[in-house]
Write a structure and sequence with these properties.
Blueprint (H helix, E strand, L loop, with lengths): L2 H17 L22 E8 L2 E7 L13 E7 L6 E8 L13 E10 L4 E9 L9 E7 L7 E6 L12 H4 L13 H8 L2 H5 L10 E5 L5 E7 L4 E7 L6 E8 L6 E8 L2 E7 L10 E5 L7 E4 L2 E2 L2 H6 L4 E7 L7 E7 L9 E10 L2 E5 L8
This protein binds beta-D-galactopyranose.
């Protein structure tokens, strides 16, 4: 093949992969954007604005080091949920070593919501400080007037400093907990944790916030839902009306049930949550829960996955990140999960599956490929 023919063939291949419109979801397969590149938006969050869906997620790079934030939060847009256009980096990490979002820190599970009061898009994300592993357990916030960014970083916090959860009884506030006396995860240790040992430890500094999501209710009130107390207990916290801070109204939910990766949606008058257990990048069995109000109380509904033992125990080799209501289709939701590949972070895949309902329970089943109908 001479150079001229080779160039023509390459151009044809690129044209074919870029121009090809997709009309099917293929969970776990490479998913090419409008430039023919595998979508790079892990731990994603979604928002629908003016007939368009926007997908925000962790931009990963190659290798194990690619799990850290070397670039920032990537944004894509789509009219049909199958075909995604690269909108570039919405929040960039900083080259300035004094910035908390310096390149090499950890930015995970970014979620964007629209604040009507300030006409601003607000992004929250799980934030860990460079070189400190997962110790900081903070949540960070950034804003932009334009959906695709650039987002300006405001701050990161350990939320609810000096404030007790609304559902934490007075009798436990003064109780001394000595966690060191007990073996981690033992019954006695769990008991101390349930009585708020970590909550009390972090009372002065502010609470831990690791895996997180946002949920905006029909009344416009936004909630920040995060794994706290060393990932043993979820905290569900109300945001202020500009969505930039915490109101101090928060609850402990699913206490000592060890939930990560929370994803919340509303169907009718009920609120649902799908989450995971704690096994890092490795998949585990998903859980589901139901409530009459975002602040709970939340009642466990069990594992939402149906299929083979392996599928049910490993959530189809994925971990929840978001549940998307499909626009214009009542009671239609997509379960969105990540199939992490920590040894080569950039290769992580997306597991999107339709949610079915068995009575009041959300159910997920594997499909090699499927369409919205
Ligand atoms: C998972 C979590 C991910 C990431 C990972 C790091 O449990 O859901 O977002 O933090 O741990 O090991």
């Amino acid at each position: 093949m001479n150079f001229k023919n080779g160039s023509i063939i390459l151009a044809l291949i690129l044209f074919a992969s870029c121009g090809k419109s997709i009309d099917t979801f293929k969970p776990g397969q490479l998913w090419l954007d409008n430039n023919g590149v595998h979508i790079n938006a892990h731990g994603g969050g979604f928002i629908f604005v003016n007939d368009t869906y926007y997908w925000f997620g962790e931009h990963k790079t190659e290798g194990e080091a690619g799990n850290r934030a070397n670039v920032g939060v990537h944004c894509y847009s789509s009219k049909d949920l199958y075909n995604w256009k690269d909108e570039g980096i919405a929040l960039s990490v900083s080259e300035d070593s004094t910035s908390l979002i310096v390149k090499g820190c950890i930015i995970e599970r970014p979620k964007v919501i629209y604040n009507a009061k300030n006409k601003q898009f607000v992004m929250w994300f799980h934030h860990e400080l460079k070189g400190k592993g997962y110790d900081a357990a903070m949540t960070g916030v950034a804003v932009s007037d334009k959906i695709t960014g650039p987002y300006s970083y405001i701050k990161s916090v350990n939320p609810n400093k000096g404030i007790w959860p609304m559902n934490f009884p007075d009798s436990l506030k003064t109780l001394n907990s000595d966690l060191d006396k007990f073996k981690k995860w033992s019954k006695e240790w769990n008991n101390e944790m349930a009585k708020g040992a970590i909550l009390k430890r972090d009372f002065e500094r502010g609470q831990m916030a690791r895996d997180m999501t946002l949920f905006v209710d029909d009344d416009g009130i936004a909630y920040h839902i995060h794994s706290s107390e060393e990932n043993t207990t979820l905290h569900i916290a109300e945001l202020t009306d500009d969505y930039l801070d915490f109101t101090s109204k928060y609850v402990r939910a699913l206490v000592i049930k060890n939930n990560e990766a929370p994803a919340v949606f509303k169907k009718g008058e009920k609120y649902y949550m799908i989450s995971s257990g704690l096994s890092g990048w490795k998949p585990n069995a998903a859980r589901s829960a139901i409530a009459d109000h975002p602040l709970g109380p939340w009642k466990e509904l069990g594992n939402p996955s149906r299929g083979t033992k392996e599928e049910v125990e490993k959530t189809f080799n994925s971990q929840s990140t978001y549940i998307l209501p499909i626009q214009g289709k009542q009671d239609s939701y997509i379960f969105m999960g990540d199939r992490w590949t920590p040894e080569n972070a950039i290769d992580g895949r997306y597991i999107w599956l339709p949610i079915e309902f068995e009575d009041d329970k959300p159910i997920i089943k594997w499909q090699d490929q499927w369409k919205i109908n």
